[in-house]
Amino acid sequence: MEAPTRDHDLVLFGATGFVGELIAGYLADHAPPDLRVGLAGRSRGKLETVRSRLPVTAHDWALIEADSENPDSLAALAAGTRVLFTTVGPYAKYGLPVVEACARAGTHYGDLTGEVSFIREAIDRCDTLARTTGARIVHACGYDSVPSDLAVLLLHRAVETDGAGGLIEVQLVARAKGGFSGGTIESMRGQLDGMRSDPVLRFLAGDPYSLSPDRTAEPSTRQPADLGWVGRTEGGLWTAPFLMASVNTRIVRRSNALQGWAYGQSLRYGEVMGMQRGPAGAVLAGATALGLRVFGTALTMEAAS
């Protein structure tokens, strides 16, 4: 039910932020030349600055002023584009009005959230409306949780092609470089603060099937701990807990359920971070596991203060 005419094919909301400008740069380098792109944010002056730093292919992109706390600006933003992608977070604080505006307008929506409680609330409040208008709402379109979601899908297809039956026990071993952005830290802090004050959010955070479209239909299969301790693969690679497992595993299980549990209704799915082999790998895995616990404790104490 898309409107017959939209001013833009894709609008990037939050283009003046760190990640937003990175995405804008990627679009400038890779988007088809006839794609009608818009950059949106609260400040036109900052949008002009970002656009001026992009390749010449982006210099005629439209600039759109919009604020997540201004419903009228969000309604106009959503109504003017076929697809809206937002980097404006923390999503629990700023994201829901954007999802709702897109659901009402029949505008396809994507984000980079790794906030399980936000995704759950967006599903509960907007899924029925989005189905009515034809809007497709797709969360977690970044490192959370595209590699996990696609890896399990491709594994399922390979197993299916080989006639080996459904998936039973799957462990994703992640490798990552670098640290966390300021936005990611703020999102973590917000989630911990919410869980501290709301028992419902604490339950959602601990439920491995918290994003299931039908929780009552899920099996009682015991799932791996989101943040375990040090482990070792059959190939001798030492592993540590993976901080994003508490998000990615929920996304993968939701994808499984949305496809009628195509991967296997009793699938056990977990994620860890791969380190190295040998004694050095064991030390590094232990240090990483300890560091993650110290980091989580520090964030919890800060949220409680």
From TrEMBL:
Q: Which InterPro entries match?
A: NAD(P)-bd_dom_sf, Saccharopine_DH-like_oxidrdct, Sacchrp_dh_NADP-bd
Q: Name one Pfam family in it.
A: Sacchrp_dh_NADP
**Coiled-coil stretches:** none
Domain Saccharopine dehydrogenase NADP binding residues, every copy: 11-123
Identify the domain of life: Bacteria
User: What is the official name of this protein in its record?
Assistant: Saccharopine dehydrogenase NADP-binding domain-containing protein
